[in-house]
Structure formats: structure tokens, C-alpha cells
Amino acid sequence: MLGIDAHSFIIISAAFGLLCAFLFFAVRVGFPKNIGGLAQWGWGCLLMVVGAVGFTTRGQLPVLFSSYLPNLFIPAGVIFMHYSLSLFGGLASSKRLLALLCIAALGLAWVTFVVDDYRGRVIIVSGLLTVCFAACGMTIYRYRVRRFPEWFTCSIYAATACVMGTRFLSVLLYDGTLTLENDTSAIHDIYFTSFPFSLVAMSLGFLMMANRELQSRLESQALHDPMSGAYRRDALLEMLQREIAASRRHGRPMSILMMDLDNFKAINDTHGHLVGDKVIVHFAAEATQLLRTQDVIGRFGGEEFVVLLPQTDLHAALATAERICSRIAKSNPTELPFYTVSIGAASLDRSDLDTLSLLDAADKALYAAKRAGKNRVVAA
Prior knowledge:
InterPro entries: Diguanylate_Cyclase, GGDEF_dom, Nucleotide_cyclase, Rev_trsase/Diguanyl_cyclase
EC number: 2.7.7.65
Distance between the termini: 80 Å
Keywords: Membrane, Transmembrane, Transmembrane helix
Protein name: diguanylate cyclase
Shape: elongated
Largest sheet: 5 strands, mixed
Strand order of the largest sheet: 2-3-1-4-5
Organism: Massilia suwonensis
């Protein structure tokens, strides 16, 4: 076997699996709890380690521990990986693989304890592994966002499934009596020796996926207000500056809305700051529902919000503002005090307007709405 015996590769597989399990259990401690699947991946690696160690006891322990259970622990470990990937991606976990494992366990029991058929065992295990690895790859393919770590891991699963499938077909179509002693084909060598390296590559890919998700969440926390979910002031100003430049470059309209919750200080003084915080959260959620995907809402400070409306003239911006104003006045939940919002709208209608000038125009329109009686929209 490529200059190294089977026993040595089994030991290498166990060592790699143990290293991967330790790595993911350690990573689990430092990662946020809402990034799921890390511990399950570690348990999957441990199951494969137990299976690999079991294979080394052939001739020393009963066949139950040296063949039957190890042949089940390996695919069970891959099923744990599939469960881990489902948790990580926020997908519903299917029980079909567990049902398939139970069916395979019955078949494996027959070809292990009743007829002692080595070829039958290889067909069952390689076929089961083909399905399990392919299912893992398909799970990653179903992710809403797929970047390099996802494509890398998915490709490793696909390649491994191809190796397992080739092994399955080669044994299924083998013409003759296949035993452990005469099973020395090239595909057997590839099947056997590629497994530990595939395990490491899969674990590396999943770790890259988890690290990228953590990075995305940290970046999101840096850009967004933790209470309302709207963009922070500095992030909003940077986006506004870029949009103004793009609008001038392409000659397209752009507008902003400056919004301020009416009598918010009275709400805080009367009901307390916790209730005031709930009002801000409610307003941000309601306003966001009325915006397009390309629109951006940011918390400018306290109870003041700014909405960036790309490719929107003043007439359309006023229509959006009116919808927000009307929605807030009519949608107050019973557990919150009644509140309204005043809105000032401004459009990029002059070439000399910069970020501060546009904000100032919208701010003046906002305070005109306040002076006119609140709960209304005024254009700059």
C-alpha cells in the first residue's frame, strides 16, 4: 500500500481525528454560543477516532468491537458533521441519514455475524459514506451566503464522495471473491489513504467558515447600533458620502430623511429609560419594514434617525416619509406609550451640496415640522 501498511494509516487517521476534535472543542469555548455546530463537529471527529482505534484491534478483540462497531462509528461521525453543518447554517436537520444508518446497521450485522462477507461490508460502508459525504456537501451548497470557505469545504466533500462512490462501484462490480487479503486495488489504496487528509481538509474548511462568520458578526457589531439594529452614525456618514459621490458621477437623484421621535424626553421621564429603549427598537423595526433593500437607516443620536434613499427624488422621498409617519402614528402597541415622529426630507438637487449641507437642509426641515405641530413631514 503505497509504501505504508494499513495499520499505520489507521493510526494516522485516529491521530488526525483526535487533533481535529480537540481543536473544535477548544474553539467552541472562545466562540459565541450562537455560532452553532462547533461542538458537534468535535464529537463527529471523536466518533471516527473511536472507529479507527477499533480497527486496530482486529484479531485481539471480538468482531463486534474490531469490525462491526468501527464500521458504524465512521459514518456516524460523518452524520454528526452533517448535523453540525445544518446547525451552523441555520438549516433544518434531516433524520434521513440516521434512518439510513440504522438500515445499514442491520445489513452490516448480517454480513458480519451471519455470513462473514467482506465484500458485502465494503459495499454497505462505502455506499453509506458516499451518501453521507454528498449530503454534507449539499448542505453547504444550500447556505444563503457562499464564500471561499464554503466553496472550499463543499468541494472537499464532493471529492471525498466521489472517491467513496468509486470504491463502492468498483467493489459492487468486482468479478470474483474479494477478501481483506486480496483487496489491493489502486482505488482501495486511494480510498484508504485519502480519508485522514480529507478529514483534516474538511475540518480546516469548517474552521474557516466559522472564523469568517465570527468576523462578519464583529464587523456588523462595529457598524450597527446594538439597540435598534440601525447603522451607527459614523458608518452612516461614510455611506452617505459615498452615495453623494456616486449620485453626482452617474447623474441620478438621491434623498435623505431626518427623523426625530416626538416628545421622547417626556416618555423617558414618565415611563423610564427602559420603556424609552423599547420605543426606539419599535420605531426602527417599523420604519425598516417600509424601506427598500437598497435604502439605509441609521441612528444619528438619541431618538434621531436618518434614512438614506439612493436613486430617489424628493417627491418619492416625501411619499416614503409620509408612509413612515402614518405607520408610526397608527401602529403603537398597547404595551408602549403612544408616540409619533416628525420627518424632514432633503434631496441632492444642487451640485454644491456636500454631506454636511444635505444633512443641514434635512435638519432644518425637521425642525420646521416640529414647529408646525409635530407628527408631520416637511421638505427642505
